[in-house]
Amino acid sequence: MSKHEILVTAAAGKTGGYVVEQLLAQGFAVRAMVRQHDERSEALTARGASVVVGDFLDLDSIRAAVRGVERLYFCYPPQGDRLVEATAILAAAARDAGVKAVVNMSQITVRENPTSTLTRHHWLSEQIFDWAGVGAVHIRPTYFAEMLLILGAHTIASEGKLYLPYGDERHAPVAAVDIARVVTALLTATDPTAHVGQRYVLTGPRNLTIAEMAGVLTKGLDRPVEYVDLPIDVWEQVLTEQMGQPEFLVKHLTAVAQDHRDGVFNAVTDTVEQLTSQAPQSLEAFVQDHAAEFMGASELQPIAAAGAA
User: Count of alpha carbons within 13 Å of 222, Cβ hemisphere only?
Assistant: First the structure.
């Protein structure tokens, strides 16, 4: 493909930042959309991206962001309850601007009638992009490996315990950098039409229970880590009272916790390797790479700012 400028929304987020980095490394011009100018946007500029400030819910700013681009990555932050509106705005702007390829961040739990409102909104978002005819392809990651950091690093470092409500069912955590490699591969495909309408489930290489993940952490951090299985109602209290998360996100996280207990996340695919020609990172490698963060050496973002699906 000719190397036209590619738009990356939520460019200061976890996957967005990696996508910007990977596209620039391949020589593509990148337009990085952020909510505001700050240290993270300055870092994007320093890397070589063209930074624009945009509001997903403001049509004029989205029209300006998509003007002149043919391909883009759409990733809406999980704390907001207006994903459907944001999708409609971006889809309309993209259609009018002649955008030919949209990679849409969805999630593995997507279906018509889930308990979580956010999950249902992701399903509706997929339908809107398909109807708009903007060349949409949907990625449906399982839990990010980063969720272990966001939700567990503090108590792992202070108590040697990982408190989560996921029971003894399994999932195959996938690192944000691997999700970004898929996004980058789709955005730079010679013929993006081959992927239009696809719904790609992205996972890591191995299904594990949370207790088994605690075992990986124990070995990788060289200190005991115990999984404590919380009742979902207690988890809701933790999210609300201790973590101070917004109600919409709390309802989503408690609903997907039940999905996990029901086996909805129990899947392993080779999609990352098929689309990128590189196997996804193992949890063991992820823990090794992020050992300092698991041991409390860096400040973590709150859930809503982490760009996790």
Answer: 3
